[in-house]
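User: Run a structure prediction on this.
Assistant: Running it now.
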Amino acid sequence: MDGWQVMEQAAALARRGEAVALATVVWRQGPSSGQLGSRAIITASGDVHGWIGGACAEPSVIRQAREVIAEGAPRLLLLGSTGKFGDAIPDGMTVVPISCQSEGALEVYIEPVVPAPHLVVVGRSPMAHALADLGRALGWRAGRLDWTEFTAADAGPQSMVVVATQGHGDEEAVEQAVAAGPAYLGLVGSRKRGAAVLGYLAERGIAQEQLDRVRVPAGLDLGKTSHSEIAVAILAELVQLRAEGKLRTAVAAAAAAGAGGGAKSRAKSGGTRSAKAQADRSAAEPAEAVDPVCGMTVQAGPDGRPLEYEGSTYYFCCAGCRSEFESNPASYARKETRC
């Protein structure tokens, strides 16, 4: 795909509800296989569509892109040897040292392509119709189904589900919605009615942890309101929760679990993540190692071309580095290999 086709596919994926990152080469220092304007889409699972660079650049871009998807914030990368640039690196740029044999360097801008929110309204009351209409007015992917039509397959981990059946199939609709595991699940009704519905489902064996995630009543408390105003109150709650980052999607969580930002990255932004966030990420990241030949950070797994030598396992960015190590292992084996 050329650059424009990549952008078109990114937009199409976002319309279908898939979160991806769009990476664009904005500067290069040759020799490098990445060219100015080269673009690629990176999915939360690490798949790449398009072209951003060769074997040295691509793994680092994938790891950084998965972090961008997880955090929802763009970043500018400098891929290359930091010795070439010194203090000329601007604030806010993330530096990923690589010692590619080509000695090239790239600046890559990675931005999240955030999918439109997915709202599923279950019910046929005037309020249910109003809520679906309001969601579509915001550009959300909003749909409405009667409780007899709704199943767990109609929602997913990224969805926001509002059950507004007004007593017509509340239990059945909430049970199906719980099975879908949405980012938000709200039930329109009084607290007394909600307690009865959730109690019934608990007796049916649904885990209390899942039932505790059901918001009853759904929406902000605006006092006595009309059907249309209840729809506004529910939409306002959804907007508020999304703005506060409390509707973390499974896609973002998967990207965070797979993101390998790595200890060798250096961000000159001046900010720091919380200790808990750092600990959570460290526990989720795959193991990394340093190529003892070129110093590049690589995955400590089968894709890292593992080689056993004197009881230790070494990993490499490419076959050339592995071959260089094999030709004279004693000169490299003394180097620290773990990040």
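Residues 3-115+252-284 form one domain.
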